[in-house]
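Need the bound structure for magnesium ion, inputs here:
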Amino acid sequence: MPQKVETESRKLLGRLRDAMAKDSAGQARLDEIVRLIATSMQTEVCSIYLFRDSETLELCATEGLQAEAVHQTRMRLGEGLVGRVARSKRTVNEADAPSAKGFRYMPETGEERFSSFCGVPVQRLGDVLGVLVVQSRDAREFSADEVYALEVVAMVIAEMTELGAFVGDGAALSARHQQPVMIKGTVGQEGAVAGNVYLHEPRVVVTNPISDDPEAETARLREAIDTLRISVDQMLDQTTTVDAEQVEVLQAYRMFANSRSWMRRMEADIDNGLSAEAAVEKEQSLARTRMNGSGDAYLRDRLHDLDDLSNRLLRILTGQGKDTGAEMPENPILVARNIGPGELLDYGKTLRAIVLEEGSVGSHAAIVARAWAIPLVIHAKGVLTEALNGDAILVDGEQGIVHLRPDDAVQTAFQDKIAMLTRAQERYASIRDLPATAKCGTTIALHMNAGLMADLPSLAGSGAEGVGLFRTELQFLIRNKMPQRAELSALYARVMDAAGGKRVAFRTLDIGSDKVLTYMKPNDEPNPAMGWRAIRVGLDKPGVLRMQLQALIRAANGRPLAVMFPFIAQLEEFRAARIEMDKAMARERVLEHPLPAKVEIGAMLETPSLAFAPEVFFEEVDFLSIGGNDLKQFFFAADRENERVRKRYDTLNVSFLTFLEQIITRCAASNTPLSFCGEDAGRPVEALCFAALGLRTLSMRPASIGPVKHLLRRSNLGEVKAVIDAARARGDQSVRGAVSDWLRDQNATG
Ligand code: PEP
Ligand code: MG
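Answer from helper R.:
Posting the output first, comments after.
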């Protein structure tokens, strides 16, 4: 890069900074910027277009085009050359613009006099905020150096836009992060809550994009890169070679951290007047654009690594760690890209709702949100770009909608919705102590799922008859080291005390899949959901299972005990697990500890294979609980955490219902008590269909007991069964349509 352009660019940035430092309004600043750029680059025209809404760009300042066109000329995303720059997030450099593909003539601007056009995206971390354009009369392509200088300036404009430097009259000049925004996501958990944003990982804010001391900035960058290299090396040292995928990522980190070309590009950016942070961000933005546009999965992964590494570097440079010390606001609503169950549990029950940019309904984080009965919206695209810590936010978990910084009209409508939901809650509370007896006289036992001490008060509040599933792994996930036996035993005793004699079915540890313990060596498995998890780990490395069984027996301290083993796929696994229980009992007997008055040993039916187990399995097992979340994912071969395929298969699909019916029939024949404890048991229509097919015990999150009981009490199971059978006979793919129609008729006549 010739020295001349470097200095010119730096000089221009210096002038821009001076212009910014003046106490002028947003419009005056923009006018000054375009004037400075046009003079410095010796072009006749310089214009800035900013988004007025997500689809429309508006000419916000110009030097050289007709002044009347400012705030009048608008184009759609993708329209004309400016729209093309914004959509493609790439520079367009045309010597003969009028004959270029997509050119659109805007008569009010007077631009017909200008032949050449160069537009660069004004973008921050791949998020396009506008377009910076220079045009000149001669038909010439702008040189690589000129384009580069423009990109540097565009980067600074992006940072300033983000910091609210161009706020003024007009929609396109309103401050970012201040307007109301509505984001449509997917329902993860129902409910409606108003609160304030708390970001799981706040974005880094760069307040000093320009610098006139390249030596000092380069030294800062080098120092930060050294720190980064050391931390990557340390991470690599701590990673065992078994974790091949992690090693690959870290090696990619190391490659980038040592990459001369990456360093050279950032140093050139600094030489051109950017601060170290802005230089990192500029390269990161370019990498993001390439990442989004690349069809090559390997390249995308590596660019993703570079993105991650850039974030680390930015945090080192700005000193803004993951934990920024931002105070948790009142009524905090967690906003994150994604979150694991352990990280979520770390927040405790203070959260009022959760909004995820990614996420999935079948994940254990979603199960935790459900257990806490707080609304969850997933796939809220763009929420991370829009939301700032402390922003007012309304989460409508009924429709999967999020309102950021809502206006008064939205606030009022939302309050109405909350009032309506409260009335429904009151209706459920009024039937809390009544049985879930259907109109035909059949009573269904409704139990609740739990996993934390904090869940237990719901036992009384919800009207549950017991705990049908106690997920013991949640207690392991909230800790940062393996709990001791005495600690576990005291905890299980407290759970039984809180249950006050109601039955609690303790499920032994189900670790693996998305439930990862930070203090256990991670396993590198191509498909963890079908990998070494749950009872497979318990039998192969029985230390923890033995400790857990002993803790449970001691906690029972003479009271009845119900234990179930997760993920049993064949008879022998159940037998081996039961032997562990027998051995644990024998040990306690030798130690002369009190034994439980009665021990029930059950299994979770989560793999289709178990439904076809030999008859003796059904005779030997004391009870069975269908883990519908896993059973459904393996029945349809559709990952429960992958929204795209999960939604494809309805739980009320006739094949799945027929399969469930077969399990019910086998259990009835052998008198094996059967329950259903997957998430679907808590969905009223699903619960109704399960009951109609013969399930007599359902276990669900506490907040579902009211709605499920309400529907059961209003329905005749025999009639529902007839509707299901008719749908099956017709060859319907799912019975949902038929059952919903029937329910509508019932409501109309009832
Ligand atoms: C299930 O699979 O349905 C279940 C209850 O277990 P988990 O969701 O914890 O895997
Ligand atoms: Mg399961």
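Comments: The CA atoms of residues 32 and 122 lie 17 Å apart. The radius of gyration is 31 Å.
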